[in-house]
Design brief:
alpha+beta; 4 helices; single chain; 5-stranded antiparallel beta sheet; about 35% helix; 5 strands
Length: about 160
């Protein structure tokens, strides 16, 4: 990501509250890991509570009203709210929490004149991929080693 810059370029990319350098994004991983861990724990708890309620109340898992019915349960509602709060906390750092069930977090970054996302998935050791905004996770490309003798850049 040669030329990646921080918040000073925001006036041209106002859609994002923050533009990250690779180092800045990597620096947030110690903060993000426990937040994502809590999200995964809550999602697992939600799954268990939902399965219990579906069996107990003889609900049909493919019912269009299933989510509405499940939200009537106080514990389910609180768990959903907690996941939403955790996602908001992550987004409040300037990241974009996507694919909560997959643990995907994107970091807006400037590559040349183009805004792209550095991307990280919960469980990965480091931020080692990026993708164009329109390509999404499926379009992930590895960051290359900038220290290579052949002059390879970050992208």
């Amino acid at each position: 990501m040669q030329g990646a810059v921080g918040p000073r370029s925001m006036s041209r990319y106002e859609a994002f509250p923050r533009l990250f350098t690779i180092a800045e994004a990597r620096g947030l991983l110690p903060t993000l890991r426990p937040l994502m861990k809590r999200i995964f724990e809550r999602l697992e708890s939600l799954k268990e509570m939902s399965e219990t309620l579906i069996r107990r109340d003889s609900l049909k898992p493919d019912s269009p009203d299933l989510f509405k019915h499940l939200q009537k349960d106080d514990a389910v509602r609180r768990a959903i709210e907690e996941v939403q709060e955790l996602v908001e906390e992550i987004n409040g750092l300037g990241c974009v929490c996507k694919g909560v069930e997959e643990g995907l977090v994107d970091f807006p970054c400037l590559m040349g004149e183009e805004a792209v996302f550095l991307c990280w998935r919960y469980g990965e050791d480091n931020i080692s991929h990026w993708h164009r905004i329109q390509d999404g996770f499926a379009g992930r490309k590895p960051l290359l080693d900038p220290g290579k003798k052949d002059g390879a850049s970050y992208h």
